[in-house]
């Protein structure tokens, strides 16, 4: 079940908005689709990211997938634990498996993010 307090992208990232900071990760649906995650390229603090553009890469035993920014802004914190323990994304995608924190430059960019119910319907369509 996807946490109701989070927002979601159609590319399966989640966003936990905390004032002008957003914590970003990938959804449980995405982590299950990817399979065993073996590498996460987390963005470095200070890097500017743009909504919808690549902010990092996640690699599993099945595939390599880009991670996309749900907001534009500056990366202020990265989960460097994932560099040595990428399996945290599979084990706890909504907790210890978070990817980075972004200082939001344009809060209105969140207006098109999905709520949990809409995201679950999106995932059901993706699974077919």
- What is the chain-wise order of helices and strands? EEEHEEEEEHHEH
**How many domains make up the 3D coordinates?**
1
Specify the CATH homologous superfamily. RNA polymerase II/Efflux pump adaptor protein, barrel-sandwich hybrid domain
**CATH third-tier fold name:** OB fold (Dihydrolipoamide Acetyltransferase, E2P)
How much helical structure, as a percent, in the residues? Answer: 10-25%
Average pLDDT number: 95
Largest sheet data: 6 strands, antiparallel
Write down the overall geometry: globular
Q: Please give the CATH architecture.
A: Beta Barrel
Write up what this structure looks like.
- The chain has four helices and nine strands, in the order E-E-E-H-E-E-E-E-E-H-H-E-H.
- 20% of the residues lie in helices and 34% in strands.
- It is an alpha+beta fold.
- The chain has one domain (7-126): OB fold (Dihydrolipoamide Acetyltransferase, E2P) (Beta Barrel).
- The mean pLDDT is 95.
- The protein has a six-stranded antiparallel β-sheet with strand order 1-2-3-9-8-5.
- The protein has helices at 28-34, 81-84, 88-91, 116-126, and strands spanning 7-8, 13-18, 21-26, 37-41, 48-49, 54-60, 64-68, 73-78, 100-104.
